[in-house]
Amino acid sequence: MTLRLYNTDISNLLLEKEYPDVLPASDGGIQEYTTHLELPIGKGCYREIYFEGVHIGFGDAILSNNLMLYFESDFETVEMHFALKGKSTAITEHFKKEVSFDSHQHNIIYANQLHGKMKWESDVFQLFEINLAPSFFKRYLPEDTLLFDRFRNAIEKGYSETINVENNRISRQMYEIIDDIMNCQRKNVFKRMFLEAKVIELLLLQFEQLSEVAHIHVSLRKEDIHKVYAVREFIMNNLNNACSLIELAHHVGTNEFTLKKGFKELFGTTVFGFWTDAKMNQAKLMITEQDMSISEVSDSIGYKNPRHFSAAFKRKFGVIPSQFKK
């Protein structure tokens, strides 16, 4: 399996990646790669985790101008695509129309030996994608639904297609799983087991969202949606800070009402309910995957009193942190 990237002069090969069909058992059947891409208009970093039937890739780039690259691949794949930041567009004759993603959107794509152009139209770009072998994906594709039957038929006939005409919004639960995958510290076979379970869980959330007859109506304007997601990002990067609702709103140039309404519509919870959940999930990772005391974990996520932290942790997970650590 080979992927090639070219710059605007298609004779100039920028990157060529080959993925092995068989991985060494000594590494738990899992391999990881990090690729740094230096271009005249910017730079980027892309991490990959690969095991049988599953390829996970995520990264970001900072660009001074729009970027156009040519690509070609010699394999077929089902891609769970999540655009975290920035706008991208794939232009290829294999699809009926251009395949575009804006920030905070996701879809599922079947791609069979694609070649074409990829355009990035943002100064900051971040994506997360999971490529599945069609045989792996079809084990979980639901039966007896017109939407899924159409996509299954496209795979069987080898026609590149998106599972849904319109992209959907990345939910709070999806972001939590994506964060778990990107920050996983386990090793070898334990990492593979963890990641495979998370991939299936994320796929489940995509299927459930696609299966809903009526999606949740979002009344916010597009610019306000981006501001709500910007507050989410601020929270995730500043878990140990203490900010008021009005400070958060002013940080992204909106008001309290819009921020509260946006969090409820997009994430199904309050701003501080989301913040507390994010803190507890981070604390759980620290307890299970890092050699930190309960007091250190409490302090790192902004709790001055470890007892208050223990009470909040028990409300979230049903046990106090010391029991969870054991």
> What Rg do the Cα atoms give?
21 Å
The domain tally reads 2
Task: Write down how many β-strands occur, each being a DSSP E stretch of 2 or more residues.
Answer: 14
Low-confidence stretches: none
Structural class: alpha+beta
Number of discrete helical segments: 11
Name of the CATH first level of the largest domain: Mainly Beta
Query: Helicity range of the residues?
Result: 25-40%
Please give the alpha-carbon distance between the first and last residues. 43 Å
What do you see in this structure?
The protein is of the alpha+beta class. It folds into two domains: 2-211, Sandwich (Jelly Rolls), CATH 2.60.120.10; 222-325, Arc Repressor Mutant, subunit A, CATH 1.10.10. Helix content is 40%, strand content 28%. It has eleven helices and 14 strands. The chain has helices at 134-138, 146-157, 172-182, 188-211, 222-237, 245-251, 256-267, 271-289, 294-300, 306-317, 321-325, and strands at 2-6, 13-18, 30-39, 42-51, 54-63, 67-73, 76-85, 88-91, 99-101, 105-112, 115-120, 124-132, 161-162, 168-169. The strands form two sheets. Strands 3, 4, 5, 7, 10, 12, 13 and 14 form an eight-stranded antiparallel beta sheet that branches. The radius of gyration is 21 Å and the shape is globular. The relative contact order is 0.09. Residues 229-326 form the HTH araC/xylS-type domain. It comes from Sphingobacterium anhuiense. It holds the Pfam family HTH_18. InterPro entries: Homeodomain-like_sf, HTH_AraC, PchR_regulatory_protein, Tscrpt_reg_AraC-type_HTH.
